Amino acid sequence: MAGIVSVIVDGIAYGMLLFLFSIGLSVTLGLMRFINLAHGAFAMFGGYVAVTLMNGYGVPFLLLLPVAFLATGLFGAVAEKLVIRHVYPMPELQQVLFSIGLAFAAGAVANIIFGPQQQPMLLPGWLSQRISVLGLDITGYRIFLIGAGLVAAAALIALFNYTLYGARVRAAVDSRRTAEGMGINVSLLFSLTFGLGAAFAGLGGALAVGFLGLDPTFPLKYLVIVLMVVAIGGPGSIAGSFAAAIFIGVIDALFKYFVPEIGGFVIYAVLVVMMVFFPKGLAGGRTA
Amino acid sequence: MNRMKLSLGVAVSLATAALIWGGGAQAQQKKLTVGVVLPLSGTYADQGRHYEDGMKLYQKLHGNTAAGVPVEMVVRDDQGPGSGDLARRLTQELIVRNGADVILGYSFTPTAMSVATLLNEAKKPAILVNATGAAVLPRSEYFVRVSITAAQFAEPLARWALKNNIKTVYTLVADFAPGIEMEGAFKKVFEGGGGKIVGGARTPVSAMEYSPFLQRAIEAKPEAIFAFNPGGDVSVAFMKQAKERNLAKAGIKLIVSGDVVDESMLAAMGDAVDGVVSSLNYQPDLKNPANEKFLKGFHDMMGANAVPSARTVQGYDGMALIYQALEKTGGKTDADSLLAALKEAKVDSPRGPISIDPKTRDIVQNMYIRRGVQKDGKWVNATEETFENIKGTAN
User: Fold this and answer.
1) Is residue A285 assigned to a domain?
2) What is the pLDDT of residues A88-118, one digit of tens each?
3) How close is the nearest chain A Cα to the Cα of B258, in Å?
4) Under an 8 A CB cutoff, do A215 and B267 touch?
5) Phi and psi torsions of A212, nearest 5°
6) Which domain holds residue A43?
7) For testing the chain A interface, which of B214, B233, B235, B266 should be mutated: the one with the most A CBs within 10 Å?
8) Percent of chain B having pLDDT more than 90?
9) Cross-chain residue pair A213–B237, CB shorter than 8 Å
């Protein structure tokens, strides 16, 4: 029994990581209608920022996370201003081709700068220890991931639903012309929002290194699972992505545990079923 | 008049130069061209470099000629696994256009498979610098393997486990050909020696979340878990999660094939390799004259802090086989003589004595059991025991 519970808790923690990865994509895809397959590149950027700071300058782990968040956010906002905004009016296929090309290019650049090898990231002792909670042994890092995911989800839901910024973003998405007519600076708003999506990817990337490792193939490796989270959750819905990520994490863990012969494939079957019966995802097309 | 003299002089000296150059070229006509096909770009560029470094190092230390015949490398990039068609085309070009006498390379089993029929037609020997799959060698009688096989990884580990009174093992291998070969080879030796496999799971090749598999393995209460996964980030994730699950506390030993805890990933794994037992065909800390020479040359070439890998040695030995074959044939470069010599090769390699089994054309070598320990603040795999003359393919 304790075994099953610990598998579920581990699955939730894995789901939280998926949530942090995918939330930025959900924002750009759902709110800004931009198909950003280069999203993983921002996660990789955050990962490399974290690794470089930790191994090169001995920056403590807890400080790394906000730095990776801000640095990736800034990088995302600048990239949006310089390049990506020119892609918004293009048809979807061109957006896809452009952003997948960007992902490949980012991987190649990382290969040149950091080399093809795995990047080491050694977690502080208090995170790699196992902690007993209610008789369950859970790694500190998984608990930390769950906490980080909950905080991020709450903050984003609050931001988009209960602040003026969120209202402006939703207004701009629904009708850009009207929003501009009301005096909302939509172009600045989109830069900020894109930067925010990138920042969360960067945070997810920094958190992932200690768990999944980091190398230049990162932007493409997690693309499929991130797209699954967004598709099942419903693009643009933070609560939907949250639910989808946890759902995938737990389903994946349970099937790997109970039926290891097919465990690795069940989530893909789930995706197919979801897309057939709920093509708009869990959130059913509602935003935020 | 003056001008005419000048141009005449120029013409004469040009003609002389051409004569000397042409004569020189004629004397150099006999040479051995080694066509090298390796993954040198993309995800697996890193391992491709290791083989190439090893080949270059051998030539640096032993000169560019063997039996008076210059040996020349022509290197091509096959871009990694899944590019069999490209590897095949490159090999064909090397043979037809560059006049390659022997091919050295192929990091991946599928790549080697895709060139087998080509080699049969062209009748050119090829030395496999890796391509560890059991199915490769029977595909072409022109293949000779200088690397390692799944059976070589698994056999010494199974024997080590039996020797150390481990009675029950749970297997956890990646669900593709090398993993399944590894599982079979381990099971055969371990159960043959009286051990019992109490269960097992095959994990998706690129799985990143192992926690449920590990939990199930722990619940089967084996004395050890035998694991194999394809290296890189996958193995880093696996090792970290095995550490998370605290196998040692549950009284379970972790034994893995050496490539799971590859030297290049130890820094990323950290204390997750503590006490983990693995097998590999090369260890930098081996004490033998060939290794001393190799290490000195390697550090001169790559810097004092660089660490050679088994892959570097495999590239190095591939070249050593070619040099030895040339010496044996007395400089003859035709395919039949070369292949006959390669099949009987015996070399004092940095990894200890190695030889090619003439029947299977597979390598026979020592395997080293290592244990993850901390040394001067760094995690390393320290050699613990040697199993001698392990065959790549049983015959």
Assistant:
1) no
2) 888 889 989 999 999 999 988 998 898 877 7
3) 17
4) no
5) -115, -5
6) 2-277
7) B233
8) 69
9) yes
- Angle between the N-to-C axes of helices A39-57 and A223-233, in degrees from 0 to 180, rounded to the nearest 10: 120
Q: Which two tokens stand for residue A159?
A: 């931001």
Name chain A contacts of B202, Cβ cutoff 8 Å.
260-261
Residues linked to residue B375 through DSSP beta bridges, in sequence order: B378
Which positions 190-219 of A are in contact with B (Cβ < 8 Å)? 210-217
Establish if A282 belongs to a structural domain: no
CB-based contact A253 B211, cutoff 8 Å: yes
Number of structural domains in chain A:
1
**Cβ-based neighbours of B208, under 8 Å, separated by 6 or more:** A212, B233, B234, B237
Domains of chain B, start order: 2-148+290-358 (3.40.50.2300), 150-280+368-391 (3.40.50.2300)
Answer yes or no: is A288 within a domain.
no
Phi, psi of A233 (to 5 degrees): -75, -25
**Edge-first strand listing for the sheet containing B126-128:** B65-66, B69-77, B32-38, B102-105, B126-128, B143-145
Over residues B298-344, the pLDDT tens digits come to 999 998 888 888 999 999 999 999 999 999 999 999 999 999 999 99
A117 to B264: CB separation less than 8 angstroms, yes or no: yes
Least confident stretch, B13-17, B33-37, B345-349: B13-17
* pLDDT tens digits for range B62-75: 999 999 999 999 99
- Asked if residue A233 is part of any domain, the answer here is yes
